[in-house]
Write a structure and sequence with these properties.
This protein is α+β, with helices and mostly antiparallel strands and 387 residues long. The protein has one domain (4-240, 347-385). Helices cover 28% and strands 14% of the residues. The radius of gyration is 22 Å and the shape is globular.
């Protein structure tokens, strides 16, 4: 049974932010945090910044590919906050990040170079023994690669170059599978199968390849639907929606500071303090990734107390309406994926392809990112660097 690491050879470890204040569920807080640390000086700025071995306000750092943030040492920064970008934080949680390389310990520039409207990222969720939930997720936003349980997975771009060029697949894989199944297998078909069929293991994700073309066809159809739901309208798709009568609505407004989240299975009601949302299918509430309930973690990340005096303590004073909208969409995504779980469990590969001559193991070059691009990138202190 091949490993995902063999099917998609190039992957990176998760982003390592180094300081939690550079990511938040809302963009306005990030801009306020930026202003606070820029105004500070000396020891106060160091304390707010959160110095590490990799980054201090005096570090000389190159620009993140595709971003317009500065490259002068941060201690001399006086300008406005770079426009925050939407990223995928763990599984299914979309947050905002300040895209400034001076603030991020390990930003994985190779991922930023290939992140565009054609790119997808397959993210391993990390191994947790006897846990429920999918082995991989797929997103169009740049992911940080952290599983809900905090276990590091791997981030695997679908394409090695911008513009949907050069699939990140073992050389010869698509043509070999096409010969087996009697039709041309393309990159979207391959990623759909991975999303539907990947299985977790202590050694990494495994992806059985069926000998039966009908099993392959069934898995690809399921994987396409799972991918469409997770992309939430990206790449020209439609945003996921539950059928009429099953769509969640706000029945009682979420209070300014909800202190707890709870679920009534009989009434299908999700409570956030005195706020009420229904109907919320049990499939959404029970959805776990790496052993963690997704909805509870999503709520905790927005309401957990922050240490006073830190930049993380700069946050919305009251619950923003945008968070409620995000929650309604998340409930929809989890409910739709939960409804597909039975089909995923029924996807059995009775007979596997045991040999694909010339495909495995992939060559060492396929495990490295593309190293030559057609543009310059700004290095530290405004110098240009070629990659």
């Amino acid at each position: 049974m091949p490993m995902l690491d063999e099917l998609m050879p190039w992957g990176t470890a998760p982003l390592r932010l180094g300081r939690p204040w550079v990511m938040a569920p809302d963009a306005a807080s990030l801009k306020a945090r930026w202003d606070a640390v820029v105004r500070a000086q000396g020891v106060e700025q160091d304390a707010l910044f959160g110095c590490t071995r990799a980054r201090t306000p005096r570090s000389a750092v190159s620009q993140l590919p595709g971003q317009s943030s500065g490259t002068a040492r941060f201690v001399r920064e006086h300008g406005p906050c770079p426009a925050p970008v939407r990223v995928c934080h763990g599984a299914f949680d979309e947050q905002w990040l300040i895209p400034d390389h001076r603030l991020i310990d390990v930003a994985r520039p190779e991922l930023w170079r290939v992140a565009d409207e054609r790119q997808l990222f397959v993210v391993e969720q990390g191994w947790v023994a006897q846990s429920a939930g999918p082995a991989v997720g797929v997103c169009a936003l740049l992911p940080d690669g952290r599983s809900p349980a905090g276990r590091p997975g791997r981030i695997r771009p679908l394409f090695r170059r911008p513009g949907g060029v050069e699939p990140n697949l073992a050389p010869g894989l698509l043509s070999a599978l096409g010969s087996r199944y009697g039709h041309e297998v393309d990159v979207d078909e391959m990623v759909a199968w991975i999303v539907a069929a990947a299985e977790p293991s202590a050694a990494g994700c495994v992806v059985p390849l069926p000998a039966d073309p009908d099993v392959w066809r069934s898995g690809v159809e399921l994987g396409r639907e799972m991918t469409r739901i997770q992309l939430r309208g990206a790449r020209g798709g439609e945003r996921p929606r539950l059928p009429g009568g099953r769509r969640p609505y706000v029945r009682a407004a979420v209070p300014a500071r909800p202190d707890a989240i709870a679920y009534d299975a009989e009434e299908e009601v999700l409570s956030l303090g005195d706020g009420r949302i229904s109907p919320v299918p049990a499939e959404a509430w029970d959805f776990h990734v790496a052993g963690v309930r997704v909805l509870e973690l999503w709520f905790e990340r927005r309401t957990a107390a922050a240490e006073p005096g830190t930049l993380e303590a700069i946050r919305p004073a009251v619950w923003p309406q945008e968070w409620t909208s995000d929650l309604l969409e998340l409930i929809t995504v989890l409910a739709l994926l939960g409804e597909l779980r039975s089909r995923q469990d029924e996807l059995k590969v009775e007979e596997e392809i045991t040999e694909l001559p010339g495909v495995f193991p992939p060559p060492a070059a396929a495990r490295r990112p593309a190293s030559v691009l057609d543009h310059h990138e700004e290095g530290p202190e405004g110098q240009f660097a070629l990659v």
